[in-house]
Amino acid sequence: MKLSEIKGVIFDLDGTLVDSMWMWKAIDIEYLGKRGLDCPEDLQKKIEGMSFSETAVYFKERFHLPDSLEEIKAEWTRMSLDKYENQVPLKPGAGRFLRFLKDHNIPMGIATSNGQAMVDGVLDALKIRPFFDSVATACEVKAGKPAPDIYLYVAGKLGVKPEDCLAFEDVPAGIQAGKAAGMRVVAMAGEFSRAMEEEKRRLADFWADDFDQVIGGILQ
Questions:
Q1: Rounded to whole angstroms, how far apart are CA atoms 213 and 166?
Q2: Could you give the CA distance from residue 220 to residue 215 in angstroms, rounded to a whole number?
Q3: Percent of the chain as helix, strand, coil, to the nearest 5
Q4: DSSP states of 97-161
Q5: Could you tell me if 56 and 178 are in contact, meaning their C-beta atoms sit under 8 angstroms apart?
Q6: Which of the following is catalytic: 12, 28, 149, 170?
Q7: What is the pLDDT of residues 120-177, one digit of tens each?
Q8: pLDDT tens string 79-89
Q9: Given a cut of 90, is residue 65 above it in pLDDT?
Q10: Strand order in the sheet with 108-112
Q11: Three-state secondary-structure class, residue 7
Q12: What is the pLDDT, as a whole number, of residue 24?
């Protein structure tokens, strides 16, 4: 793909731009464990792509939690902020790729299913907020991934047509969201989603083991 064909780039955050998926399973285990509940094996797949608010609804209904949705989200936020601010790094090559896009004056956005407080924490901790012209969470749109809403919303904020955007994702629901929005999608490798690799490769337009591979590989 020629770099000149790309007018905007939109990133998923967790598992794509930052290495954070490891902590969410740990948080789910701890959160449910406090309530005397085991973490089901299918949980991560069931909530894949859901917005932060949609996930809270799912937890409340599936596990019959007495807490309000706001209480559930507040506890998750407290549990995750320290990890986001101190233990979550950028994925390999991500910093170099962000600088590359900035040097080529390509607008960048984030389309994440996460909550705003955690997004703010990790962007500020990693000092990457200045790279982005738009940062949006799926709580701001009608439906989370695999619906295209969040990608269409961010493209609109960037002032770029969806078909001129390149999206980066790490799980099938996210890839489906980008494709449904009419974008070309790069599936990023990740330890968390290793078992989904065949599905990811089938759904996406491109595959990358890391961001260094994108420069000079996918983008010519």
A1: 15
A2: 7
A3: 50, 15, 35
A4: HHHHHHHTT--EEEEESS-HHHHHHHHHHTT-GGG-SEEEEGGGSSS-TTSSHHHHHHHHHHT--
A5: no
A6: 12
A7: 999 999 999 999 999 999 999 999 999 999 999 999 999 999 999 999 999 999 999 9
A8: 999 888 889 99
A9: yes
A10: 134-137, 108-112, 8-11, 165-169, 184-188, 206-208
A11: coil
A12: 85
38 is catalytic: no
Q: How far is CA 180 from CA 137, 163, 197, in A?
A: 17, 11, 20
Query: C-alpha angle 40/42/48, rounded to 5°?
Result: 120
Mean pLDDT of 91-104: 96
The confidence score (pLDDT) of residue 99 equals 97
The token pair that represents 110 in the structure block = 């984030």
pLDDT for 133 equals: 97
Q: Find, among 1, 18, 5, 215, the residue nearest to 112 by Cα.
A: 18
Q: Is 12 designated active site?
A: yes
Concatenated DSSP letters of 63-95: TT--S-HHHHHHHHHHHHHHHHHHT-PBPTTHH
pTM, two decimal places:
0.87
Measure the CA–CA gap between 117 and 115, rounded to whole angstroms: 6
**Mean pLDDT, residues 179-196:** 94
Q: Report the distance separating Cα 14 and Cα 10, nearest Å.
A: 13
- Are the C-beta atoms of residues 198 and 189 closer than 8 Å to each other? no
